[in-house]
Amino acid sequence: MKLESRIPEGSLEQKWTKYKNTARLVNPSNKRNIDIIVVGTGLAGSSAAASLAEMGYRVKTFCFQDSPRRAHSIAAQGGINAAKNYMNDGDSTYRLFYDTIKGGDYRAREANVHRLAEVSANIIDQCVAQGVPFARDYGGLLDNRSFGGTQVSRTFYAAGQTGQQLLLGAYSALSRQIGKGTVQMLNRHEMLDLVVVNGKARGIIARNMITGALERHSAHAVVLCTGGYGNVFYLSTNAMGSNVTAAWKAHKKGAAFANPCYTQIHPTCIPVSGDHQSKLTLMSESLRNDGRIWVPKKKEDVEAIRAKKLKPQDIKEEDRDYYLERRYPAFGNLVPRDIASRAAKERCDEGYGVNATGEAVYLDFSSAIVRYGKAQANVKGLANATHEQLVELGTEVVKEKYGNLFQMYEQIVAENPYKTPMMIYPAVHYTMGGLWVDYELKTTVEGCYACGEANFSDHGANRLGASALMQGLADGYFVLPYTIGNYLADEIRTGNISTDTPEFVEAENNVRQQLESYFKTSGKNPVDYYHRRLGKIMWEKCGMARDEEGLKWAIAEIKKLREEFFAEVRVPGSMQGMNPELEKAMRVADFIDLGELMCLDALDRNESCGGHFRVEFQDADGEALRKDDEYNYVAAWQWTGDASKPNLVKEPLIYENIKVQARSYK
Amino acid sequence: MEGNMNLKLKIWRQKSTSDKGAMKDYQLGGVSPDMSFLEMIDVLNDKLIREGDDPVTFDHDCREGICGMCSMFINGEAHGPNRGVTTCQLHMRSFKDGDTIYVEPWRSAGFPVIKDLMVDRGAFDRIQQAGGFISVNTSGRTMDANAIPVPKEDADKAFSAATCIGCGACAASCPNGSAMLFVSAKVSQFALLPQGQPERKERVLNMVKQMDEEGFGNCSNIGACEVQCPKNISLENIARMNREYLMANIKPEN
Ligand SMILES: Cc1cc2nc3c(=O)[nH]c(=O)nc-3n(C[C@H](O)[C@H](O)[C@H](O)COP(=O)(O)OP(=O)(O)OC[C@H]3O[C@@H](n4cnc5c(N)ncnc54)[C@H](O)[C@@H]3O)c2cc1C
Ligand code: SF4
Ligand code: FES
Fold it and tell me: Which residue in A67, A228, B95, B144 is a FRET match for A640, CA 20 to 30 A apart?
């Protein structure tokens, strides 16, 4: 396999414009004869499906939830980046591009990232035109906040529900097309295989989750917008259903999987409370605009807090260690996620964690509340406001900015975060790795594309906050609709694609056999039992800190787990009808294979970069140590038929515009 | 092993849409107050699977109150006893050791049961498809986002209406089975924004027409929907939609 990134010639600023000017087009009457399957209805899928249908293609869209509006994108909280420079703080396309490359620890493609920064401003225009109610200031103009890894305010938001509002915007565009009949929407359908005919993606096998029936769907191109694979860790901030199956099936049919080990562990999540835990809840990065992170300086204070003899409010200012502000004065609490997470782990490993398990730090809003209170008091002309009044006024401001997050926290933890600092700890959140795609977002299978979190494209080894929403919508609204035409221009004479060919029959039979196999074993444990075990292996050995020995151990454990899983998993019911346990079994089987690949990838990469931290490779201050001369490549893994022996193909990363240097946020 | 609450659960079991269904009793121990309600059902399902029974089917995904999948009547109330939260945000600390808890699916003509606690809410999608959008193409070449300032108050109100998660608790709680709160939230969001003006009339007419066709009942201002809504969507939206609807009907097109 040869990897062709297909990056257009010319200067960085001109590449996308030139590409669009020269890409082949499909004329309107031909578009009507071309079918496109879009799997997934998150930001990437909904925006892609709506756009393709508007252009005139015949689109079929799939999701496993009961409505496209429920895709996991709905849960995104804090915001979406765009280089609008409305704040007049020096932002520009170049700066967004630069911040993203640097934030990704110099492991992303320049051309893709620049294109992302270029189209970012259009996203905001588009969404406002669709009626997305972004936050506004008193003059009626759009407001911005800051996210980690940047020194400008370029993040647009809708309280703590930005993903919801953006997805509902894309869903409304999609609904409009469904209403017109240009998109056929198949809810509660799960893609279980990609069908490849003569080297080209020609359709999928999907299971109707209500009836259990297997269906064949054909198309001239298949677009996978199926999200990330963070749930390989079992506990993550992802929705329960998020999974890797669609991408993994494409991988097994020839699509290379890139940088699987690049996982984002988000620093501010609600800590694990017990063995019953089914998922973890994020507290948006936007909270780091106003919240200050700390642990006590003294061990005796830590002990007293754990024993509930002291409250965090009782710890004097000088006895608090605001460790991010201490270690990274230039960015303070707004360092990128990988750095903030590791710093929290470092403090907790040293014994400064503030909850019973020793795995929590404080995120404290008290000084922000007073600061906002003072500003409000000034606005209202309350010169002699008491401290209590300031707190009251400030609390209102904080409530307006983050109210729903504080409510979520209070529901889960049963503590009022306006009064007591939040307790937080890092958790798995996002996966930078994914299906390898070229500049056109095409995988290594002709006619099979990947958008959104499902591809590996833009975030290198660490994604900056508020950039996933940007990428999902950029891919779906503004990139794929152009690039896919360049391929489909050759398909105008193909005509309808039959689903009776041997390839479809074989794919369907394979899926049926896999499904049936779960009912043959008498079975001991439910699917979740194995999923939790896999998650624990991954979290401990392929999580925030990795080393050679641990990864080798993990690989051996995963192999054992795979055997046990297939021999002993118990799946109730049958193939017919609704069967959530069967759905989970199919997903966990793929997670097991993926988990092994992640460990192999982490083992191959003998350096630390972004979210991939190999304990053996760090400097004296504990910062990640990259090895650019050896590892400045994208690791694209090819399926060989044996999950333990994938084939590594390298795409060298070439930096022509940015000087690769050690990342510093000090 | 984790917790020490013992519960008696009475859960609606129904094999398929055509099956009649019935309540069934379960005894469950080891429940911790820190578990969410859905995690408690996970524990029950683990037990049922191990004992060779069919686990309880229910809708869920985000488990943090935003996707709108989870949908249970708990002790006769949509999303359970607490206000302003979804089922997945409800924690077992809201119950006591020894409690009997009734768990049922949404009951509404518009939401047929698929299995156990899982219902079909496709009606909501179809209402949205009838008019819940602004007809702007996705080219990105619209006007600059800051070209039209929107008064903060309108923007905030539009946002509040737009936080509806489409869970269906409103229609399920309404004695008339009316979906007005859901529909009015969408109509209001767009009616409050300048971008929504050009299609204001057709939108409300088309969405209401579809709502009626889906078999939802009429609104008689009982207000149960607002009480049960996990996102505190306000009845004001219904009043606004009624005005929109009247205006759309009165003013002749010209
Ligand atoms: C809690 C949380 C908060 C976040 N906050 C932010 C934020 O503030 N800013 C930001 O930029 N990013 C944020 N992110 C990240 C961001 O939300 C995601 O990366 C992004 O939404 C992914 O969008 P997507 O369209 O690629 O996939 P998703 O939204 O995950 O959609 C996947 C779709 O694929 C479908 N699907 C998957 N597999 C199959 C299959 N086999 N068959 C059929 N359908 C399938 C699903 O049904 C779904 O429709 C957050 C993430 C989390 C978890
Ligand atoms: S209005 Fe409230 S109860 Fe009704 S669907 Fe929306 S969020 Fe659910
Ligand atoms: S599971 Fe998403 S709202 Fe409850």
Answer: A228
Catalytic residue among A58, A69, A109, A337: A337
> 1.10.600.10, 3.90.700.10, 3.20.20.70, 3.20.20.150: which CATH number matches A266-428?
3.90.700.10
> Do the Cβ atoms of B166 and A67 come within 8 Å?
yes
Structure-token pair, residue B79: 């999303």
Q: Where in chain A is the domain with CATH 3.90.700.10?
A: 266-428
Any atom of ligand 1 within 6 Å of the Cβ of A5: no
pTM value > 0.80 = yes
Determine the Cα–Cα distance for residues B156 and B161; give it in Å rounded to an integer: 9
Domains of chain B, start order: 5-114 (3.10.20.30), 122-250 (1.10.1060.10)
Cβ neighbours of B146 in A, within 8 Å: 84, 86, 141-142
d(C-alpha A216, C-alpha A505), whole Å: 9
Displacement of CA A211 from its chain's centroid (Å): 31
* C-alpha–C-alpha distance, residues A582 and A562, integer Å: 16
Please state whether beta strands A183-186 and A58-62 pair in parallel, antiparallel, or not at all (unpaired): parallel
What is the 3-class SS of A40-60, one letter each residue?
Answer: CCCHHHHHHHHHHHHHCCEEE
Query: What CA–CA distance (Å, rounded) separates B184 from A238?
Result: 30
A15: helix, strand or coil: helix
Mean per-residue pLDDT, A648-652: 98
| Chain B contact present for A52, CB below 8 A | no
Å between B212 CA and nearest CA of chain A: 17
Q: Compute the mean pLDDT over every residue in chain A, rounded to the nearest whole number.
A: 96
pLDDT surpasses 90 at A513 = yes
Residue found under tokens 């303070």: A332
Q: Where in chain A is the domain with CATH 1.20.58.100?
A: 509-629
| Tokens 């782990």 -> residue | A345
Mutational pocket test of ligand 3: of B42, B58, B59, B66, the residue with most ligand atoms within 8 Å of the beta carbon: B66
B26 to chain A, closest Cα gap in Å: 18
With an 8 Å Cβ cutoff, is A157 touching chain B? no
- Give me the CATH code for the A509-629 domain, please: 1.20.58.100
Which residue out of B36, B37, B67, B197 would a mutagenesis test of the A interface target, given it has the greatest number of A Cβ atoms within 10 Å?
B67
Residue A1 has pLDDT above 90, yes or no: no
Task: Give the nearest chain A residue to B132 (CA atoms).
Answer: A172
Q: Residues, chain B, total? A: 254
* Predicted confidence band of residue B1 (pLDDT cuts 50, 70, 90): very low
Residue B44's H or E segment, with its range, is: helix B37-50
Residue A175 Cα distances to A171, A202, B133, angstroms: 6, 25, 8
Residue with tokens 């982490």: A602
Interface test with B, best of A20, A84, A116, A172 (most B CBs within 10 A): A172
Is A140 in the B-facing interface, judged by CB distances under 8 Å?
yes
Region label for B11, one of left (φ > 0), alpha (ψ between -120 and 50) or beta (otherwise): beta
Cross-sheet strand order for the sheet of A189-197: A189-197, A200-208, A214-218
B61 to A68: CB separation less than 8 angstroms, yes or no: no
| CA A498 remoteness from chain centre | 35
Cβ A325 vs Cβ A318: under 8 Å: no
Tell me the average pLDDT across A212-233: 98
Query: How many angstroms separate the alpha carbon of residue A227 from the centre of ligand 1?
Result: 5
Residue B2 has pLDDT above 80, yes or no: no
Are the CB atoms for A430 and A262 separated by under 8 Å? no
In ligand 3, the atom with minimum distance to the C-alpha of B87 is 4
* pLDDT score recorded for residue B252: 62
Query: Does the Cβ of A162 fall within 6 Å of ligand 1?
Result: yes
The interface predicted TM-score of the complex, written ipTM, equals 0.97
